Structure formats: structure tokens, C-alpha cells
Structure to design on (73 residues):
């Protein structure tokens, strides 16, 4: 089980993937980030020879987090 990842059996022996992500602050335009994540998922599925099993991909951003603060001494 991976937090933020939901895989659902879909039509035609394919699996739909829903990713619930947290973006770092300041985020790039979220539609561009979602496009890059979707492309990476497609590439990873193809590299694993699972491209034919990949159905729809939905990407949502539930939060934006600030990067960890680094102490300056």
C-alpha cells in the first residue's frame, strides 16, 4: 500500500491510477506539474512493460507544503 495512491481495476484489464499529492511551496503551475507527473507514470509503466495495463490517471493536489527550514548558524 502506498499513501496517496489508489489503483482501481477498470475496463479491458486496465488499472486506473489516482494520485493524491502534496506540492512544495512555491509550486509551479499545478497543471504543468500534473502533466509532468502523468508523463512520468506513463514512462514508468512502459519501462516496466505495464503500459498496456495502464488506464486513466487522475492527479490531485490536496495540499501545498513549505520546504523544511534550514537553521542558519
Amino acid at each position: 500500500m502506498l499513501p496517496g495512491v489508489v489503483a482501481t481495476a477498470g475496463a479491458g484489464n486496465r488499472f486506473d491510477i489516482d494520485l493524491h499529492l502534496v506540492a512544495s511551496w512555491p509550486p509551479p503551475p499545478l497543471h504543468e506539474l500534473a502533466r509532468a507527473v502523468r508523463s512520468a507514470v506513463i514512462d514508468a509503466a512502459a519501462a516496466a512493460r505495464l503500459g498496456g495495463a495502464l488506464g486513466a490517471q487522475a492527479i490531485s493536489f490536496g495540499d501545498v507544503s513549505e520546504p523544511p527550514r534550514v537553521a542558519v548558524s
Summary: DSSP finds one helix and three strands in the chain. Strands lie at 5-9, 15-24, 54-65.
